[in-house]
Amino acid sequence: MEIRIDAEFRHRAIQLAQLSLPFRFLICTNNRAYALALATHFAIDTLVDSERLVGIYTTQVEALNHSGEFGADLLVLVSELLDDGYGVELVRRLRQSQDPPLTLINLKSTRRQTIREAIDSGADAILTYAGMGPALLSQALVAIQQRRRFIDPICEHLLETDKKDLKVELTSREVEILRLVTQGMTNREISVRLYIAETTARSHVQAIIHKLEVRDRTAAAAEGIRQGYVQ
């Protein structure tokens, strides 16, 4: 994607700045370069109220243990992947909190199962990396202010075509475990990493093998790479 700092981009940037004024922000991402750049921007830009950025975290645990108040004016921006798991799970847990914040999740994957799980999580806005841009983000912020859910048109299109495609896809948890299998982890090592029982890890691996229609975990890793589950 090419980004040009032209008149249109400046117009969209100003519009975004205005639309973001009602919110405080909490960022949850495994992209450390992005997190550092954002923190630096808030730190050195004297025109930006740094108190509106209440925290930047790379794990679910850190975000859920955030010491500040959540509330309806807090917008949590969540990446699909975090250092300790999936952003969809974080959104789900935030929505179950006593004073739930607003949530916007940005999906790197455009697999239909991931999109469905993001919708089921209760996220207020769902965007994709492929569709992300100032115009779409502005639309999402407007919808959030009006208390309407916003779903990236790319997601809506994929779910519509899903009615004609009955292929079984891996769940987000299964993709997470498949990535660990690809790294050579045993069921026990997976259980320790994800804080689940070893029998649960084994069941997930067996389900993955069945869905990918392969014979063993080594073949599952190879097939996962071929199908794009693992990069």
Put the structure in a nutshell.
The protein has 231 residues and is an alpha/beta fold. The chain is built from eleven helices and eight strands. It has helices spanning 7-19, 32-44, 60-64, 87-95, 112-120, 134-145, 153-162, 172-182, 187-194, 198-212, 217-227, and strands spanning 24-28, 53-57, 74-79, 81-82, 85-86, 102-107, 125-128, 150-151.
Describe this protein with a few key phrases:
about 230 residues, two-stranded antiparallel ribbon, six-stranded parallel β-sheet, globular, Arc Repressor Mutant, subunit A, 2 domains, about 15% strand, alpha/beta, Rossmann fold
Describe this structure in words.
With 231 residues, this protein is an alpha/beta fold. The chain has eleven helices and eight strands. The strands form two sheets. It has a six-stranded parallel β-sheet with strand order 2-1-3-6-7-8, sandwiched between helices. The longest helix is centred in the last third of the chain and has 15 residues, at 198-212.
